[in-house]
Write a structure and sequence with these properties.
The protein has 270 residues and is α/β, with parallel strands linked by helices. The protein has a single domain, classed as Rossmann fold. The strands form two sheets. It has an eight-stranded mixed beta sheet with strand order 1-2-6-3-7-8-9-10, with helices on both faces. A hairpin with a 3-residue loop joins strand 4 and strand 5.
Length: 270
């Protein structure tokens, strides 16, 4: 039996909807499932957070070190004009980086991301003006502490991409077992970054440029020479002001491409 024109239109419309009607959170979760990450939601007294764990968390239970990844800001705004309903990253590069990491590793989700944007405690300010606020940082620290209580890790490495690098630096002083913090293409001076792009200042967010970490914590700040989203001078100047901090510049890398190619080499540095 053949398919008539109306049926063909219906099938084509349904196929398009499967792709375009899927939310960023659903797409991100689908990639995580394909990569065999285990997912769970941790509730704190402030927000809920989705956590993605790689298989090494279960396979290498004797390991004493855990790598904790923090993703970027995703898409707080659509076309830089309208508030996004779901700020979750459209490009799950952070999952690809974690896939290359053979150590036990988790991705600690930000509040209101990964399908939690419609929960009662969430409002769009937590992925726009308040994206790096004290409440966000406090809740992420609580969620991570809660996850760690059920395990026997005694060393922690924070790894933050883009805006996740900002949160990594802000979280650093909240985590006593922190050994190293690694940032990748991160807007580490929030005020300077906003001025560079002509954005409205994020006055309700914290700025890691005002902090100085304990010298016992090693810092590695990585920049891409072709990055137009976070210019290299912001990262270089930040690293120069910190104690026990290294700055690493990669040629031919921009904000999104092609960090997966060099990530295995970077992993050997910490």
């Amino acid at each position: 039996m053949g398919i008539n024109i109306k049926q063909s239109i219906y099938i084509a419309t349904a196929f398009l909807c499967l792709n375009s009607c899927t939310t960023p959170s659903e797409k991100f979760s689908r990639v995580a499932t394909e990569l065999k990450y285990r997912q769970q939601v941790i509730d704190t007294a402030i927000f809920s957070h989705r956590v993605f764990a790689n298989t090494a968390v279960e396979q290498h239970k004797e390991s004493t070190t855990i790598h904790v990844y923090l993703d970027g800001d995703g898409t707080p705004w659509k076309n830089n004009r309208w508030l996004a309903k779901d700020p979750t990253s459209r490009n799950p590069m952070i999952l690809r980086l974690m896939q290359l990491d053979k150590s036990p590793a988790i991705l600690l989700g930000r509040p209101c991301y990964h399908g939690l944007n419609l929960t009662s405690e969430c409002a769009s300010r937590y992925w726009t003006t308040h994206r790096y606020s004290s409440l966000v940082v406090k809740s992420m620290a609580m969620a991570l502490t809660q996850w760690l209580k059920e395990r026997e890790y005694n060393q922690l490495i924070l790894i933050g991409y883009s805006g996740g690098g900002v949160l990594a630096m802000l979280l650093a002083s909240e985590m006593p077992m922190l050994q190293t913090v690694v940032t990748l293409a991160a807007n580490l001076d929030v005020r300077e970054w906003s001025l560079y792009h002509g954005y409205m200042p994020l006055d309700d967010s914290l700025n890691p440029a005002a902090l100085e970490l304990n010298s016992n914590i090693h810092q590695l700040h990585i920049a891409g020479a072709d990055d137009k989203v976070v210019p290299t001078y912001i990262i270089e100047q930040y690293a120069a002001r910190q104690v026990n901090a290294s700055y690493l510049l990669f040629p031919d890398q921009n904000h999104r491409c092609c960090w997966t190619k060099v990530w295995p080499d970077i992993l050997t540095l910490f």
